[in-house]
Design a protein that fits this description.
Elements: E1 2-8, E2 13-21, E3 32-40, H1 51-69, H2 72-77
C-alpha cells in the first residue's frame, strides 16, 4: 500500500489517498484499489447550515484528485458511449 494525506481549507479538511493491490479477475491482469477519503479534521468543523456547501467542496476535491490519479487510457474506460445497434443475422 502507498498513500498520502493532504490538508485543505486552513487544515479544516483532510483527504487521504491510498493505492493498494486488489485481487484481479485472472492471472493475466493486474488490479488496484484507489481509496480517496475526504473528511473533516475535527468534529463539528462545519455548522449545520454549511453542510451542503462543504459537500460540494469535498466532492470537487475528490473529483479533482481522482482525475489527477488516472491516465487518459483509463479515463476512456469510464466514458459512456452510445452503443450502435447490430442487425440480427
Amino acid at each position: 500500500m502507498t498513500g498520502c494525506e493532504f490538508s485543505f481549507h486552513d487544515n479544516r479538511d483532510n483527504c487521504r489517498v491510498e493505492l493498494t493491490d486488489a485481487v484481479p479477475e485472472s492471472l493475466e491482469h493486474n488490479a488496484y484499489l484507489l481509496n480517496i477519503d475526504y473528511f473533516l479534521a475535527e468534529e463539528r468543523g462545519v455548522p449545520l447550515d454549511g453542510v451542503a456547501d462543504w459537500l460540494e467542496i469535498a466532492h470537487t476535491h475528490v473529483r479533482d484528485i481522482f482525475e489527477a490519479c488516472i491516465k487518459d487510457s483509463l479515463r476512456d474506460l469510464f466514458t459512456i458511449r452510445e452503443e450502435t445497434p447490430v442487425a440480427a443475422r
